[in-house]
Design brief:
With 427 residues, the protein is α/β, with parallel strands linked by helices. The longest helix has 28 residues. Strand 6, helix 10 and strand 7 form a beta-alpha-beta unit. The protein has 14 helices and twelve strands. An eight-stranded parallel beta barrel has the order 2-3-4-5-6-7-8-9, surrounded by six helices. Strands 1-12 form a two-stranded antiparallel sheet. It has a two-stranded antiparallel ribbon with strand order 10-11.
C-alpha cells in the first residue's frame, strides 16, 4: 500500500483564471452566464474572488507545502479591447507571480484556458485563420511582460475539449454545432500553439534566458471498445480517439498535420514541446460514435469513470511520439463531499510511482473549489473548500492528505490507513 515518490518528482496544484478570479471582464463566459447557459445559474463574476484574495490563496498554498502552481492569466482582463493593453492587470499578475516565487512556489503559466475576450469572439474567434494574429499578439505581449520571471508556459489548455464542447456539442460558448467548425478550430489552435512556442522561445532567448520550457495541456483519455470482439465498437473507438485527441496531439507536437486537421503550408516539421503536459480524468467506453461510460465502473459525482491505469496508458502513447519529461498538468475528481478524493489521488499517484515513465510533476486539479464551467459552482474538485457566499477557504481532509504526502515524500502505511483505507468509491 505504501510507496515513495521517485527522485525529482514533486506535487503542485492547478487553476484557471476564469474559474477562480471573478469579475465582469467582457469575456465569453461572462456572456454565456448572461445568456442563462450555466446549469446551476451561478455567475463566473463571483467565482472565488481570487483576483482580490490572491495573497491569501498564495499563503494557503505555502502553508500546504505546495511546490508548483499552474497559474492562468485572463486575456480579456489584459486586453479588454482590441489593441488596448491594461497595464494594471499585467502589474497585478507580475506581483502575484513574484509573491508566489518568494513563497518558494514555482509558476507554470497558462496563456489560454477556454476563455476569449468578446471583441475576439465577435470577429469569429478561432474559427477564422485571419484571427490567429490576435492570439499571437497576445502571446508576444505575455512573453515580453513575464518572460524575465517565468520560464515555463502552457500555450493552450485542452484545444480538443474547447473545440468539441464549443463547436461540436454546442454546450459551451458560442454554442455552435458543426463538426467542420470544430475541425477548423482545432487546426487553427494547432497553428497557434506552434507559433506561440516559437515566439516564447525567441523572446526569452533575446532576454538571455535559455531554460525555457513550453508545451500545451493535452486532454487525453482512453477510448476502449465496449465489446473488444465487436468490430464496430473497435472502429468507433479508433475514430473517436483520432478525432478527439490523437490527430491534434501529433500535429501540435511535431507539426505533421494529420487528418482530419488541415495542413498549413507555413508550418514545418519539428519538435514543438519541451515537456509532455497531460490532463487526465477518465476513460470512454465506446459502442458508437459518442461518449460512453462503463456501467459497473466506479464513478465520480459527474458520472465519469474512475480509471487510474488510464493515466499511464495515455502517457505511454504520448511518450512514444516524442520522448520528453512528463508533467501531469491536471488530474482530479468531482467529489462534492470529499468522500473519495484521497483514494482517487492515492491511486493515480501509485500508478505513476510504479511506472517507468519520466513523470516529474503532478498538478492536482484543482487547488480550490471553483466555477466549473457549464456546471457552475455545483461541481467541487478542490483540495480546499470554498464557501461562495463568504469566500471562506477551508482545507479539506484530502488537502491535509496532499500536504502530508509532500512532507513524507510518498505514502506510508500509516498515512494510507488514516486517509485512504477509510474511503471508497460509489458506482
Amino acid at each position: 500500500m505504501d510507496f515513495d515518490f521517485k527522485e525529482q518528482f514533486s506535487l503542485g496544484v492547478a487553476s484557471a483564471a476564469t474559474q477562480i478570479e471573478g469579475g465582469e471582464c467582457g469575456h465569453n463566459w461572462n456572456d454565456w452566464y448572461h445568456k442563462g447557459m450555466i446549469k446551476d445559474g451561478s455567475n463566473p463574476a463571483r467565482a472565488n474572488d481570487h483576483y482580490n484574495l490572491w495573497r491569501q490563496d498564495a499563503d494557503l498554498m505555502a502553508d500546504m507545502k505546495i511546490e508548483h502552481y499552474r497559474l492562468g492569466i485572463e486575456w480579456a482582463r489584459i486586453c479588454p479591447e482590441e489593441g488596448k493593453v491594461n497595464e494594471d492587470a499585467i502589474t497585478h499578475y507580475r506581483d502575484e507571480i513574484l509573491y508566489l516565487m518568494d513563497k518558494g512556489i514555482s509558476v507554470l503559466l497558462t496563456i489560454h484556458h477556454f476563455t476569449n475576450p468578446m471583441w475576439f469572439e465577435s470577429k469569429g474567434g478561432f474559427t477564422k485563420k485571419e484571427n490567429i494574429k490576435y492570439f499571437l499578439d497576445f502571446v508576444d505581449l505575455v512573453a515580453n511582460s513575464f518572460g524575465d520571471i517565468v520560464a515555463e508556459y502552457i500555450t493552450i489548455n485542452e484545444p480538443n475539449v474547447y473545440a468539441t464542447n464549443s463547436f461540436y456539442f454546442g454546450e459551451w460558448p458560442p454554442g455552435e454545432k458543426s463538426l467542420t467548425k470544430a475541425i477548423i478550430v482545432m487546426t487553427n489552435m494547432a497553428i497557434c500553439h506552434i507559433k506561440a512556442y516559437q515566439i516564447i522561445h525567441n523572446t526569452r532567448q533575446s532576454m538571455g534566458f535559455y531554460d525555457t520550457k513550453v508545451s500545451f495541456a493535452n486532454h487525453v483519455r482512453v477510448f476502449d471498445p465496449k465489446n473488444p470482439k465487436n468490430l464496430y465498437h473497435r472502429i468507433c473507438a479508433k475514430l473517436l480517439d483520432r478525432f478527439f485527441q490523437s490527430a491534434a496531439t501529433e500535429t501540435m507536437t511535431t507539426g505533421n498535420f494529420k487528418w482530419p486537421l488541415k495542413r498549413d503550408k507555413d508550418i514545418g516539421l519539428g519538435e514543438y514541446l519541451d515537456f509532455i503536459a497531460i490532463n487526465y480524468y477518465t476513460r470512454s467506453t465506446v459502442s458508437g460514435f459518442g461518449d460512453g461510460t462503463k456501467q459497473d465502473a466506479y464513478k465520480n459525482d459527474l458520472g465519469w469513470e474512475i480509471y487510474p491505469e488510464g493515466l499511464v496508458r495515455c502517457a505511454e502513447e504520448l511518450y512514444k511520439l516524442l520522448e520528453r519529461p512528463i508533467y501531469i498538468t491536471e488530474n482530479g475528481t468531482c467529489d462534492n463531499e470529499d468522500k473519495f478524493r484521497s483514494r482517487y489521488i492515492y491511486e493515480h499517484l501509485k500508478v505513476i510511482a510504479e511506472s517507468n515513465l519520466p513523470i516529474t510533476r503532478y498538478y492536482h486539479w484543482c487547488f480550490c473549489d471553483n466555477f466549473e464551467w457549464i456546471e457552475g459552482e455545483s461541481s467541487r474538485f478542490g483540495l480546499v473548500h470554498i464557501d461562495y457566499e463568504t469566500q471562506k477557504r477551508t482545507v479539506k481532509r484530502s488537502g491535509e492528505f496532499y500536504t502530508r504526502m509532500i512532507e513524507e515524500n510518498g505514502v506510508t502505511e500509516e498515512l494510507y490507513d488514516e486517509y485512504v483505507k477509510v474511503q471508497d468509491y460509489h458506482y
